[in-house]
Amino acid sequence: MQLVVNTLVLAATYALIACGYVLVYRVSRVLNLAHGELMMLGGYLLLTTASLFAGRPLLAVAVALLLSLGLGLLVYVVLMRHFTGESVLAAVLVTIALGILLRGLAILLWTAQLQYPLVALGWQNPALSLGGGAVISAAGLLTLAAVAVVYGGLLLFLRYTPWGIRMRAAGENPLLAAQRGVALPQVLALAWGLATLSGGLAGMLLACDSGIDGTAVIVGLKAFPVALVGGLDSLSGALVGALLVAAAEVLAIAYLDPLVSDVVPFFVLLAMLLLRPWGLFGRREAFERV
Amino acid sequence: MVLLQVEKLEVVYHQVLTAVQGVSLAVRQGQIVALLGTNGAGKTTTLRAVSGFIGLDDARVTAGRILYRGEDIHGLPPHAVARRGVVLVPERDKVFESLTVLENLEVARRCPHQEARRLYDLVFTFFPQLAAVRHRQAGYLSGGERQMLAIASALLCRPQLLLVDELSLGLAPRLVQALMAQLQAIRRELDLTVLLVEQNAAAALAVADYGYVMENGRVVLDGEPSRLRAHPDIREFYLGHGEQQTRRSYRDVKQYRRRRRWYG
Amino acid sequence: MAYASGYFKTSYGAELALVETRLQWAALAALGLGLGLFPLLASPFALDLANQVLLAVIGAVALMLLTGYAGQISLGHAGLLAAGAFTTGILAEEAGAPFWLTVPASGAVGAVLGLVFGLPSLRLKGLYLAVSTLALHFIVAFLGSEYETRHGFSTGILLDSPRLGPVVLDDARLWYGLLLAVAAAVFLFSRNLLRTRTGRAWIALRDRDVVAAALGIPVAAAKLSAFVVSSVLTALAGCLFAYYRGFVSIEAFSLFTTIEYVAMLIIGGLGSLLGAVLGAVFVVTFPYLIDLAVDLLPVPARLSTYVFAVKYAAFGLIMLLFLLLEPEGLLGIWRRVRDYFVLWPFRYRPLAGRS
Ligand SMILES: Nc1ncnc2c1ncn2[C@@H]1O[C@H](COP(=O)(O)OP(=O)(O)OP(=O)(O)O)[C@@H](O)[C@H]1O
Ligand SMILES: [Mg+2]
């Protein structure tokens, strides 16, 4: 029972992070390897706003979320804008470089110690009993709720709103979208903003659950196989991928060796790449265009 | 009034292949202008240069000007050109295959709902077949239905100048006739100007007010449709009324050689 | 100037020659002399730095063959270095194997791993290939750390200085000689390899794999051979690295190491062996330059307690700047400067002959 709960919470964390990878990839065909760092910055931003707006935790969270959104927009406008239409490799290398830069800056700005924004917010993270001896932390429960909200919101957004439809169109055929009057820079900036926002939210929840330091990046990196297993351009695929990878990881920790946990996602990834490289839910044509 | 004026346009692909070299043409307000030519003559490239390239195309306008209502629009991103009212119906990849028909139209919509409703009604009366499949994914449409959808979604952008690349591509001859007729009707309804690229010269010249013939990236002939239709070379190579069986290609025509020296 | 200002080749032999002008021979001789005299004059610190640069040169040239010439993106470079180092460490620790045995053993492991890393490339391209090599990196790293913990070497495996006949390699100068010889050999080997059928097949593959296949190049074999050659050289670099350090630990082969090597290629200039060398020099000396700057400049206390973070950030920034402003890297800058002087008062080469 506890294993199921653990799997669900871990899957929720991965899914929340993975949807950032999917959003950016789907619209711009760029693999954002700085997503882990952007997610970590979300946690750190919450740390800062929590001490800035001491006593008004909700305001602190809201401001941190806004800053995350802004950060994503900034990354696009300052950097990635120059790489639309360039070779995929160059864009990926840029995100790698950006990740290193951000990692260094995060340590300089927030030191390398493990810190707990929850303390600054003045909130608790009690363990809630679920019956049957299973417990779930409040932050874990919140993560599950956040996944439901974010994925539900994103799916509705992409399906029904004009901006969402434009985003899908631009992802499928950027030239035609532009010829139909869709401003690609705006759509791409929005995708980066939303991706960083959801990633930042994941970072904040992670920071609330287990504190934040540089190792958060590893979680972000492990969420990337999740996105790929589901198929890099499918949101619902990311959900399934998250469940799959999280289950494999939780089982490996329980029955094999806790040390394995860091590589399990990559084993799953490799198996997937060999069997069905376009992912569980990805479109094969999209894969072959890469 | 001259709506679109292309002057000595030169387009280079991948920095090596000059697909269009010094094309000049003019489109007057309210006209239908036909652009004819053999395969690979550079017609598509000309239209795409007018509507704007994006980085992925690796194509550049290296010389010349593209004036729309007196403003040089060359170098503007495609969405800016589209928002000025110059809208292209492309030759390939003309619909978003993973989107439904309605969503395809929605991508192009840029006006408030009130006016969009009128446009939707309009395109669905022009293309009743589309209305029947409005919830289907465009990837599952037939070639002809795609063509209709492409034109419909271009109309949703509220164009003033419509650039149509290969209206008849993959369509049944009867359908082409009907589409040409519809195009004229649409033009009257929406007060459109049309630049039409066409392989079916007879159909195009039947509706056009003026025509240009391209060859090897250059304009080699232009004139009123009646004049073009009467021209012996056009009769032979585009309309299929050959009189002298010895001349096999446009290149062998004296007329063309003379023009070539003139332009080259 | 030591460079020809245009394309003056009149025979096939001249086309094949590695060195074009007499002045270039002179410049090469001077370079050789300088490199030879260096250990006699340098401080221990500078010597250690030079050795690190030479090690990096071997690894960077290996990666350049794979990524810069054959066009196969790999993010598993650190994993291959680790494989070489661990093969050495394990053989020396468990079996007491000597130097002349561990070196070929590392190479062999490198070859096998090259095949493993290369197999996905038969099916995957670009981004997906990069991702699969990344996954392999993590798996190799995991195996390494697993070995360390299982066998009680949680801080790493210690290695004795290797013995070459009667000589014990425990002096930085001796190491300098060995590494210089190996690096030069690897460089020349690669330079020559690129002129063979195999090398040309790689370049064709990089430029357009479909066309390469149409030209009758066995694409699968060419891809695999690129992976194998590159991995063997990389594993050798890993082996030498382990001996030079006297110490093997998985900590030294993180993802960051891979990124450093990729950065060498970008900063040096993709698609050129000389670029790999320049990049290696730059990336290895860069952190020491930062140290110097932090020592010399009056920086806030926070910056000096977290020097490693400063290095991180500066490194990322430099990489970004190169990607944004100078995609051809240091070599591109060098070429522009050189052409300016060689061709002055003209601006273009009459015929693009050399690259
Ligand atoms: N994306 C591209 N990259 C390189 N060359 C291209 C590209 N598109 C077209 N060309 C070349 O440019 C020339 C003109 O092509 P274009 O598509 O404009 O011809 P077209 O007149 O539209 O022909 P068709 O009637 O067959 O459609 C051709 O020689 C073609 O090979
Ligand atoms: Mg065409």
Structure description:
The complex is a heterotrimer of chains A (290), B (264) and C (355). Chain A has helices spanning 2-28, 35-52, 57-78, 88-110, 117-121, 138-160, 162-172, 174-179, 184-210, 216-230, 235-255, 264-275, 284-288, and strands at residues 127-129, 135-137. With 290 residues, chain A is an all-alpha fold. Chain A has a single domain, classed as ABC transporter involved in vitamin B12 uptake, BtuC (Orthogonal Bundle). Chain A has a two-stranded antiparallel ribbon with strand order 1-2. Chain A is globular, with a radius of gyration of 19 Å. Chain B folds into 2 domains: 2-85 and 159-263, Rossmann fold, CATH 3.40.50; 92-158, no CATH class. Chain B has 11 helices and 10 strands. Chain B has helices at residues 43-51, 78-83, 101-108, 113-126, 128-132, 143-156, 173-190, 201-207, 225-230, 232-237, 254-263; strands at residues 2-13, 17-28, 32-37, 59-68, 71-72, 86-89, 161-165, 193-197, 210-215, 218-223. In chain B, the strands form 2 sheets. Chain B has a 6-stranded mixed beta sheet, sandwiched between helices. A 4-stranded antiparallel beta sheet of chain B has the order 2-1-4-5, with helices on one face. Chain B is globular, with a radius of gyration of 19 Å. Chain C has 355 residues and is an all-alpha fold. Chain C has 2 domains: 41-253, no CATH class; 255-346, no CATH class. In chain C, a hairpin with a 2-residue loop joins strand 2 (163-164) and strand 3 (167-168). Chain C is globular, with a radius of gyration of 21 Å. In chain C, 41% of the residues are buried. Mean pLDDT of chain C is 86; it is low at 351-355. The interface between A and C is large, with 40 and 45 residues. The structure holds adenosine-5'-triphosphate and magnesium ion (MG). Residues 43-44, 91, 165 of chain B line the site of magnesium ion.
